[in-house]
Amino acid sequence: MRKKMFWLTIVTGLVLAIGGFFLSAPIGPPINSAISNPRVPFSPTVFVLGVMLLFGSAVVYELTPGGSKEK
Amino acid sequence: MASKTNQPSFALWSGSKIFLALAVALLVVAGWGIYAYSQELIYGLSVSGMGDIGTGGGAAWGLYIVFIVYFVGISFAGITIAALIRLFNLERLRPIARMAELLTIISLVMAAMVIIIDLGQPGRGIINLLRYARPMSPFFGTFTLVISSYLFASLVYFYLDGRKDAAECAKQPGRWQWFHKMWAAGYKDTPGEQRRHRHTTWWLALFILPILVIAHSTLGLVFGLQVGRPGWFNALQAPSFVLMAAVSGIGFIIIIAAILRSVPKLRDRLPMNIFTWLGNFTWILLIGYIYVMAVEILTSTYTAHRDEVLLTQQLFTGDYAWVFWSSLGLILTSFGLLFGQFLRRRYTISLLVVSGIMLNLAAIGKRFLLIVPSQTHGTLLPYDAGSYSPTWVEYSIILGVFAIGTLAYMLFVKIFPIMEIQETGKGE
Question: Which tens digit of pLDDT belongs to each residue from B222-262?
């Protein structure tokens, strides 16, 4: 249970962070507002949430109850 | 167990009149700061001394930005020391770990508060940052790495590191038992929990260290990447920021540790060798900072662009000369004090505290010199030189933020052990 939750948090965080980063980064010369703005609005927030989940996985790892073996 | 629950660092100053008096004084200052901010909200940034660069003859970044950089700077040392203790088993410094971590969190929250204050329309500013920030801009890094990741990572580290002591405190009935229980979240100190905690904090420390170097460098790059601004466009901006952050942060920790050492209960827990270590580490970092500063000055005066030379002249002999020479004097004097103690192998806490205070004043001065003169005297267009003088609103708000931060620190120390309970057991 613990390991599953921990890896789930890490993977979700990683996906959100990488996805949020690239969706925030328009490619091309900044000649108009379409290029100046992120591809998807609020993608920087997705990036931040992803990074937070990555660090939050430490809390999940410590707080989630372990399996019957550990008990 | 009794020795643990009666550990001396818990519930400091309970019922102390000095604590109450100080808390009331800080509340008054905080209230004054909130009143000043209300004036800014009602009348806009026109109540500040800031103005447009060039045509407005002013500086668009003023005291607020100076203190954002300063607060983020002092946050550096706290979590760095905590991470170094964990990674390299620096047991000697363990008593100051939590006070350092708390300094990081509170100073980052203070920095975030000042960022919001600096925005004329805070709501609009925050929403737009969440919506439109772009990784190509250093501001994106400041927002995501400094305030979000760095603060969140520090909070996670702080929370997990405090669970064991929270569980100990939760055994004692009292007004804050619910808080301690909530923090402990069922922690029982089993061998399995201890092992997991060691793993988690080790990995966290490993990830936090590079992130905070990147975060502080990013803050330096906000200035260092601006090619059209003499005094800012500089490859040494990022390392300079990291070094000054470390120096001022450790100076601040020396001050806090000395204040806590004045509490009789904690005197034995904060031995002189901790202060010696901090003092020596500070002068070593200062050598690095002085070197970077000397290289910057040489570069901007030797065969630099005309605008760079003019700006540097302003720092040496112009309007900002008193800030420049005072800051330099404070840095060199504190270096002399720290290095002199090292040579004599004799350290006194009062001299270390004086050095810490001087370094923090110098840090504020250096941040001011970095941010303001480049706007008032660093324009490449043919505008007249501008000027900037903070108003009472700006001073009051900054004092208010300081008061809120200090109050938060004091309240935390009152309800939670500022040093690990386990260490107290050993010490006793």
Answer: 888 888 888 888 888 889 988 999 999 999 999 999 999 98
Predicted pLDDT at B335 = 96
Q: State the complex-level ipTM.
A: 0.88
Cα–Cα distance between B278 and B258 in angstroms, integer? 12
Measured between CA atoms, how close is A6 to chain B, in angstroms?
A: 11
Q: B341, B282 in Cβ contact below 8 A? A: no
A70: pLDDT confidence band, cut at 50, 70 and 90? Answer: low
Query: Within chain B, what is the greatest distance between any pair of CA atoms?
Result: 74
Distance, CA of B286 to CA of B243 (rounded, Å):
8
Q: Please give the Cα distance from B365 to B177 (Å, whole number).
A: 43
Render B332-345 in DSSP notation, one character per residue. Answer: HHHHHHHHHHHHHT
Residues of A near B (Cβ–Cβ under 8 Å) read 21, 24-26, 36-38, 41-42, 44-45, 47-48, 51-52, 55-56, 58-59, 61-63, 66, 70
Q: How confident is the model over A14-66, as pLDDT tens digits? A: 999 999 888 887 777 767 777 777 888 888 889 889 989 999 999 999 998 87
Amino acid in position B294 = A
Backbone phi, then psi, for B28, in 5-degree steps?
-65, -45
| Nearest CB to A62 within list B133, B136, B200 | B200
**CA–CA distance from B102 to each of A65, A66, B187, B242 (Å)?**
28, 30, 21, 19
Please measure the distance between the N-terminal and C-terminal CA atoms of chain B and give it in whole angstroms. 13
Q: Which of A25, A37, A66 sits opposite B135 (nearest CB)?
A: A25
pLDDT below 50 — which residues of chain B?
1-9, 423-428
Alpha-carbon Rg for chain B, nearest whole angstrom, is: 22
At a CB cut-off of 8 Å and minimum separation 6, what does B241 contact? Answer: B69, B73, B216, B217, B219, B220
H-state helical runs in A1-71: 2-24, 33-36, 43-63
Report yes or no: B136 and A25 within 8 Å, Cβ to Cβ.
yes
CB environment B18-49: b (16+ within 10 A), e (fewer): ebeeebeebeebbebbeebbebbeeeebebbb
> Which of B288-318 are b and which e, b meaning 16 or more Cβ less than 10 Å from the residue's Cβ?
bbbebbeebeeebeeeeeebbeebbebbeeb
Coil/strand/helix, residue B385: coil
Angle subtended at Cα B289 by Cα B287 and Cα B291, rounded to the nearest 5 degrees: 70
How far apart (Å, rounded) are the C-alpha atoms in residues B317 and B424?
Answer: 54
Chain B partners within 8 Å of A63 (Cβ): 185-186
